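Input (TetR family transcriptional regulator):
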Amino acid sequence: MARTLGMASSAIYRYFPSRDDLLTALIIDAYDSLGETAEAALKASEGAPAGTRWTAVCEAIRGWALAHPHEYALIYGSPVPGYAAPATTVPAAARVGFALIDVVRDAHRTGELDVAPVPADLEPEAARMAADLVPDLPPAVAPACVAVWAQLLGLIGFEVFGQFTRIVEERDAFFRHTIAGLAHTVGLRPAGTS
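Output:
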């Protein structure tokens, strides 16, 4: 990176006291860039049915990841050995998840949400997660959102990291089909149903 800026690699430490400080800055920058992209898609789809908004946000996240594979790898790939992300990365990291939760929240408000109940043994964890993440939504929404978020990032990661080579050729159609299933998992009803 330093050479790209026309400076010696050691010069970067005039701006960052350590490797971990540099990594933290890069990670926050990547999370913020992705978060801005997801939030822009959320705002641009305002007023549309929940399923349409879900698709817009998911496609924006995928588009960013495909355009920024190195940044995606930094934030969602293998951990950097010896690096522990500080709490200062959490607000930026949460932006994508909260963009997706905003779609679910709006769906709940407009009656487009029908989340399945959780099994009895998951109820205490669902209540804890909901209190932390979505206190204004039914507790069953929280584990569904977390599961779908992990599946979405894994789906995108498989594409970014080349795991679909010679397996999935029609990736746009496959992605749209899969995120429709994820929307169903989180409780979003297709537009026009009651």
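The mean pLDDT is 90.
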